[in-house]
Amino acid sequence: MITEKYIAAIDLGTAKFALSVAKVKGDDVQVIYYREVPAVGMRNSNIAIPKKASEPLEKLIHEAENELMIKIMQVVIGLPRYSVSQEIANGSIPRGNPDEYITREEVEALKSIAVESYPLDDPDTQIMFGAVAQSFSIDDQIQLVEEDVIGTLSSTLEGSFKVFVGSRRATTAIDKIFNNLGIAIAKKYFLPDVVADTVLSEEEKENGVALIDFGAGVTSVAIYHGGIMRHYAAIPFGGRSITSDIRSECSISEKLAENIKLAYGACLPNRLSSLSEKIIQIRYEDSPYKEVPVKYLSEIIDARAREIIDAILFGIQDSGLEKVLRSGIVLTGGGANLANLKNLIKDMSGYNVRIGYPKHLFSASGCMGVYDPSATSAIGMLLAAKRDNLPDCALAPEPTRAEVPVQETVVEEETADEPIHQMSEEEYRHGTSGKLIADEEFGEAVKEEKKQKKEKKPSVFWTKINNRLSGLRDGFDKLYTDITDDNI
Hints:
single chain, alpha/beta, Dna Ligase, domain 1, 5-stranded mixed β-sheet, 39% helix, globular
């Protein structure tokens, strides 16, 4: 029997917190809830002020529980994307029987050994975020990928892994918040690999592709080639930097600047056509109207976007993999919705660029935004948790008394007015006087009760019917007699 369970995931972004809940049954993943709220206490996807961050998270979780009528017991969480360094870890294990096939369990054991034995520079402040296998070697072959080494024969197994090291303080802050909320953390995911599985095809990973995740506080790039993540880099700039530039240039609030960016923001001001002639009238509280040309707004956005893309392209070149990106660039994250950003990256890099949306690996109804590029992290964690077969994250409430169907009890008419008292053996034996009745007498008493049950009296209902029928018969007889007497 296929069991049904819930998975809850929270994306801790710089500008927004996103909670998604899915109902999983076998291979079917149905997203039943997705909600975003403004984030506070965050800086570059790290929790800077845990107490401030916990307040909107608690409210977000309670709203989901009330709407879905469930109790969220644990969640999966995304780790910060900035201040992450990548290192190389190597490991090897001897094999007791070289005539046995290498198994996936051995590969996972080798990965664990390499990660656990890697010497962190400062274990008090650093922690492993994740690891990705790069290549494996056996007796007579080198540079094998994971799928090719499984099932081979060898006396030894060696592997090279890329490990990602992050801040222990960041994970401590996450643990602190959810401990106070009374919610367990089922797993923490390193997001670049999770997002890649959500938006990239296997062909793109194999042929070479750069995945740019344009967030609010962090813009990152993960490079794939040969089906494996080969490089990762991130910068502490994103959509919030663009909003901040609009706010300072136009002397308006950050919230108003964000709304204007979403409504009229675009890169490449020279390609705006007739839109560049439009004028935005801004009025903040009781201040006079302020006019901002759309073209000027686009020039502000374009300048910052070019700076961010320049830094990312430098990271791609620094990886040494810029010539193997045959599938070009895939752009995702909330910033991917910025008009003309895709064209700007294509002009600056020369690569083909497409927008990365969540693949249709799930169903969803009534959940606005689940197929938007900004939802790729939250949706990716749901799919990863399903693949990892994590336990149920929520409890459905027990049926209330009103929800339990009530069986209608049919009462026989003969028992309605005068219910029969079912005497116990103790009552039979003691009688009303309290005197113990002998076994022979007890047996006779039982026989007598059975006899009385068989000789049931007519029910009150039928007694009344019979009385009425009798009265009608008497009336008809009298009427017949009167008519006969008159005729005579």
